[in-house]
């Protein structure tokens, strides 16, 4: 397969997903959990069978502010509202009991807006430190073009993951930051393996032959890259099907990120490096 020759098609596909995600984030934003946005989450069940529309109507009549309602697998409902103290929560459950009958509080959790902001700040700092260290290592280990294209590929993976979460309004919890950091490490590992093979194969090559060398390097690493990703995805899909509700968001983010990372390692990062190298005025490409 001519990976380099088909690079523009791959660029367009990536841009379509990323642009759609950016538009979605501007229009409907991310579905932030109370870990980041602050607020109260209440899980309640009802003695009589009720529909989610009934619960939403009852809550709207209480005029407690914006809310999100989700029906869980066990038939209970998860309700997210603005921040409420304990007295307000007790009053809220009491009003639901009067409106729908037989309301039982299963779980409640409240997080202030300041705590959510601190979690978001810590997550962004962790991402920044990871990016800086990766740029430094790849530049020292290879060259600045490899570092630049490797980081661009990482941002590609993160933006694709954010796009999917925004478009489908999947909830972004504190686990999401851990998933993004894991995706960073996993994706750059695949990319570095291909970069290392490119460096070994190039040495001193005329620019006219560079595309063939890059294609050959990708093909030599392809089996290893795909096998690593597939074996990891098998485990992650098993966790989605049989794992608990609390880890589902983390696992979904990992699945999306690994698929995007495998794609970018094969189709995006090497092609970007090729484009940067071809802009050089030298007729011979050398990597020491």
List the keywords.
8 strands, Multidrug efflux transporter AcrB transmembrane fold, two-stranded parallel ribbon, alpha+beta, single chain, 2 domains, 9 helices, Alpha-Beta Plaits, 288 residues
If you compute it from the alpha carbons, what radius of gyration comes out, rounded to the nearest whole angstrom?
Answer: 24 Å
**How many helices in DSSP terms?**
9
Distance between the terminal alpha carbons, to the nearest Å?
28 Å
Strand content: 5-15%
Indicate the CATH topology of the largest domain: Multidrug efflux transporter AcrB transmembrane fold
Could you tell me the mean pLDDT? Answer: 84
Describe the model.
The protein has 288 residues and is of the alpha+beta class. It folds into two domains: 39-111, 2-Layer Sandwich (Alpha-Beta Plaits); 118-286, Multidrug efflux transporter AcrB transmembrane fold (Up-down Bundle), CATH 1.20.1640. Helix content is 68%, strand content 12%. The chain has nine helices and eight strands. It has helices spanning 7-27, 34-37, 52-62, 86-100, 113-141, 144-167, 175-202, 210-242, 248-278; strands at 31-32, 39-46, 68-71, 77-81, 103-111, 171-172, 204-206, 284-286. The strands form three sheets. It has a four-stranded antiparallel beta sheet with strand order 3-4-2-5. A hairpin with a 5-residue loop joins strand 3 (68-71) and strand 4. Helix 1 packs across helix 6 (144-167), helix 3 packs across helix 4 and helix 5 (113-141) runs parallel beside helix 7. The two termini are 28 Å apart. 31% of the residues are buried. The mean pLDDT is 84.
């Amino acid at each position: 397969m001519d990976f380099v020759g088909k690079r523009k098609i791959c660029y367009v596909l990536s841009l379509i997903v990323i642009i759609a995600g950016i538009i979605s984030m501007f229009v409907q934003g991310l579905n932030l959990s109370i870990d980041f946005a602050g607020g109260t989450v209440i899980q309640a069940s009802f003695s009589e069978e009720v529909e989610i529309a009934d619960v939403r109507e009852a809550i709207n009549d209480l005029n407690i502010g914006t809310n999100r309602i989700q029906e869980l697998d066990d038939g209970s409902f998860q309700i997210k509202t603005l921040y409420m103290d304990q007295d307000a929560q007790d009053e809220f459950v009491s009003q639901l009991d009067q409106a729908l009958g037989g309301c039982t509080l299963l779980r409640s959790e409240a997080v202030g807006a300041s705590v959510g902001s601190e979690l978001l700040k810590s997550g962004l700092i962790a991402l920044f430190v990871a990016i800086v260290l990766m740029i430094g290592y790849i530049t020292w280990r290879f060259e600045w073009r490899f570092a630049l294209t490797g980081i661009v590929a990482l941002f590609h993976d993160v933006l694709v993951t954010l796009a999917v979460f925004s478009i489908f309004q999947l909830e972004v919890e504190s686990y999401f930051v851990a998933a993004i950091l894991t995706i960073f490490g996993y994706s750059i590992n695949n990319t570095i393996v291909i970069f290392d093979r490119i460096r070994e194969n190039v040495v001193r090559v005329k620019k006219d032959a560079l595309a063939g060398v890059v294609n050959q390097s990708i093909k030599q690493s392809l089996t290893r890259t795909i096998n690593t990703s597939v074996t990891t995805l098998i485990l992650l899909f098993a966790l989605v099907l049989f794992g608990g509700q609390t880890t589902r968001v983390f696992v979904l983010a990992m699945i999306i990120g690994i698929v995007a990372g495998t794609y970018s390692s094969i189709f995006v990062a090497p092609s970007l490096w090729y484009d940067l190298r071809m802009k050089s005025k030298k007729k011979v490409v050398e990597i020491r």
